Amino acid sequence: MNMGKLLLIVALLGAFGVVVGGVSCSRRGSGEDQLTICFGFQDLETEFWVAGHKAITETLRAKGIRVLERNANQDANRQLEQIRDAIAQEVNGIIIIPQDGESAVTIVGEANRAGIPIAVFNRPPSDRSNPALVIVADNEKIADEAVAYMAKVAREKGKGRKWKPLIVVGDLGDRNAVARRKGFFNVMERNPDLFETPIEVPSKWDPATTLANLEAALQANPDVDFLFTSSDFLYPQIKAVLEPLGKWKKIDEPGHVILGGLDGDSTAYTLMKEGYVDATGVQDLFFEANTIMEALLTAIEVGQKTPENWMEDPGFALTQENMAERADEMWGYRVLHDE
After folding, report:
1. Could you tell me the domains of the chain?
2. pLDDT for 94-106, tens place per residue?
3. Fewest beta carbons less than 10 Å away: which of 84, 108, 147, 283?
4. How many CB atoms sit inside 10 A of residue 196's CB?
5. 14 pLDDT exceeds 80?
6. Rounded to 5 degrees, what are φ and ψ at 228?
């Protein structure tokens, strides 16, 4: 994400008493009966996580709840130890953004054994062996809808020719990345007459890895003309590779690479408005944050120690066709306009 946007959002968080990467001592209300929630997150390296963090911490504090924050800085072992420490402090509940699906299973198990209800935000455990509250976008459906629109554009422009597609794949240790890849390939399989064999570029959700792998892929396949990124936050790296090759073109310009992604951040909105990106799959970040918080607080209120409920955000595809009507439903649009 744009560093200026990140610093601005972090500054806004600071105004609410948040200590990023440490423990918040902010309180609204006091007393022995004050609820304490541990919020453990793997980092705040993208606009999505920053906005989700802001929504959760501000809402909980507005309810008079003490929030203990733990930033694991993308270290799964560190996150596990942080949650164990929170359990030792006998917090009332836990919300986590885990480093990956496997570590989420382990952390949920720790909370289950301690009898502390736990909620997982947006990045689900790799299996359901341990009960938890989970909110996640329907990543396969959202990706399918975005790529289906891109395929429609390709068919209308292609005049019978085949397109050379490329997908920037996320970290496949994350169920979200697996589902987004599946949504992309669903469209490929439904349109065998439209596409050549897709090229897969691993990103590991890391900008430097994305840049290096995408450069190598485009050197070997300079005729790529259809590109889907599993996360919008990688658009700067995509632009950095396409632009020197003369392939960073607007929709109505010759040589335009049909582009799409998934998340719904402010960069994707801006690039769609400017005419570079054809579609993006949008997660409803604020719905997800509110839903998971209310589920956790309800579990605490009724005394559920190991509640289980996997909840889904249906999301939607924002396209050049529906942008005029639906842009304001995009969380990235709201972040941009709040600034």
Report:
1. 3-136+285-312 (3.40.50.2300), 139-282+322-327 (3.40.50.2300)
2. 999 998 889 999 9
3. 84
4. 16
5. no
6. -120, 130
pLDDT in tens, 272-324: 999 999 999 999 999 999 999 999 999 999 999 999 999 999 999 999 999 99
| Beta-bridge partners for 168 | 201, 229
Residue partners of 92: CB distance under 8 A and separation at least 6:
35, 36, 37, 116, 117, 300
Dist CA 190 CA 173 (whole Å): 26
Q: Dihedral (C-alpha) 316, 320, 324, 328: value to the nearest 10 degrees? A: 40
**Spatial strand order in the sheet of 36-41:** 66-71, 36-41, 93-97, 118-121, 133-137, 309-313
CA distances from 16 to 25, 57, 223 (A): 11, 9, 49
Q: Is 159 exposed, middle or buried (0-12, 13-18, 19+ CB in 10 A)?
A: exposed
Place of tokens 């997908």: 167
Distance CA 195, CA 223 (A): 13
